[in-house]
């Protein structure tokens, strides 16, 4: 005769884990990075001798590009999580 004992561990089927998704912070961070990059490019081009209007347009173009690219990255990373 052999005696078998089984121990069963009961775990809850679904445990709610609290997660925070602050999408506003993602937009704020991407916005700040794009503004800084636009300012760096605009001031840099002005320092290199471009006329002020062309330097401002170049900085604005960089700002728009960096913001669009950054938001694409945020959307891609958020989808993966």
Strand content: under 5%
Q: Cα-atom Rg, whole angstroms? A: 26 Å
Whole-number average pLDDT?
85
Query: Topology as H/E string?
Result: HH
User: What is the end-to-end distance?
Assistant: 53 Å
Number of strands: 0
Low-confidence stretches: none
Q: How would you describe the shape?
A: rod-shaped
Instruction: Output the structural class.
Output: mainly alpha
- Indicate the percent of residues in helices: 55-70%
The main sheet comes to: none
Please tally the helical runs, counting DSSP H or I stretches of 4 or more residues.
2
Summarize the structure.
The chain is mostly helical. It has a domain at 35-80. Helix content is 67%, strand content 0%.
Overall description:
There is one protein chain. By secondary structure, the protein is an all-alpha fold. It has a domain at 35-80. The chain has two helices and no strands. The longest helix has 29 residues, at 52-80. It is rod-shaped.
Topology of helices and strands:
Elements: H1 23-47, H2 52-80
What key phrases describe this protein's structure?
mainly alpha; 2 helices; rod-shaped
């Amino acid at each position: 005769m052999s005696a078998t004992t089984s121990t069963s561990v009961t775990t809850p089927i679904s445990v709610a884990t609290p997660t925070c998704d602050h999408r506003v912070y993602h937009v704020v961070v991407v916005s700040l990075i794009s503004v800084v990059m636009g300012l760096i490019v605009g001031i840099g081009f002005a320092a290199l001798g471009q006329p002020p209007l062309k330097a401002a347009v170049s900085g604005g173009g960089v700002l728009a590009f960096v913001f669009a690219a950054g938001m694409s990255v945020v959307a891609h990373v958020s989808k993966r999580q």
